[in-house]
Structure formats: structure tokens, C-alpha cells
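Session log. Operator J.P. requested a structure for one protein chain; no other inputs attached. Running the standard single-chain path with C-alpha cell output.
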Amino acid sequence: MKPAFVSSLLIALALGLTSQAWAERADRSKPMNIESDNLRHDDLKQVSVFTGRVVMTKGTIIIRGARLDVRQDAEGYQYGVVTAEPGLRAFFRQKRDGGEEYIEGEGETIEYDGRADNVKFIKRAELRRYQGTTLNDQVTGDVIVYDNITDVFTVDGARQTRNVNTGTPSGSRVRAMLSPRNAAAQDGARPEAASPAPSLRPSGALSGEKP
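Structure written below.
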């Protein structure tokens, strides 16, 4: 397979293996609090639509966008779809257990699934991991799915579209910047041989379009 023609990539980032940091487990059971300019609620269908400068918080989770559609199933699990203003991206942020680590993400649409406990970023998607205020990892693609339970990221590149302006990048490639796990802890010191820095562990397969 030629790397130049890879249009999608499935990766599991071994984030926080040295510090054993995980997504904040308590967030899943926390209530969802929402602020917006307008609200339309259907009590029979258990569906609420918030519009205008929407801000949602759920434990350490913060989501911002132009519109938020929320529903709740019979078992009490909550689901949300956030859309951004035209030309902009919705925003997601969550703290991780075991220190000052944070996950941030953006996309034109963000989908939150309370039952599966995952977040999906759709179109111009980007995901970042911070240690305090220091950016450690950054991944971009067309669709990114972040699993809170397993800390696995699935990243898909954008498919080629017709009538693409050849003067601009097609955006069909997944891009990732991954920092060594022990670099921040040792502040630039040479890593010990007994402490290898984890980076990537395959989650399945590597696939792409044929040339």
C-alpha cells in the first residue's frame, strides 16, 4: 500500500499510559446543564432543542456551539448533537483523571452518546491533548471518534470530492502530531532505556483508496 494514497487511518493513541490518566469517569453520571438564547422542549418525546450561543456542561465536559439537540432514552441515557455557526466549528473539552490533562476537540458537528460514552467530531475535525497548558498531541481528519471508556481515537480522512479547487489542499489526509510521553516529565532530559515512551498501538486495520 502506498502511503500517498491513504485516505483513512484507524489509530489508538496510548495517551497517558505513563501517568495512567483516563477520561473523567464521573462525568457520565453527572447532570447535563445547558445555557442558550432559546429553548424548544417536547416533553412527550423527551427532546429539547437549544439555539443561540449554546454552552453545555456535564461534570468536567464543556461543549459550545450554535445549536444543541438533546434527547433522553427510557433508561435515562442522554444524547446530544451540537452544530456550529456556518463557517465555524463547535467546541468540546474534558478533563482526564490523574492530573492536569485535558482533551479538546472541534468540528462542524459534535455528537455525544451517553450510553456508549463517546464523542464524535464531524467535518474539519480536530482533537488535542494538553498537559496543563502544553499541547502534547494533535490529530486532524474528517471524522474523529473518541471513546471515553477505552481512550481509543478513530480518525478518518476526508474523501475526495468533485470540483475540488486544485489551488487548495484537498484535506484527504489524516494528520497527527504526537509528543513522547516522557518528554514533559523529564523536561528535555534523555529518556531512560527502562522507560520506553509509548506512542501508537494499532486498533485494527489501515485502509485507503487505491491509486
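Operator note: The first helix runs from residue 181 to 186.
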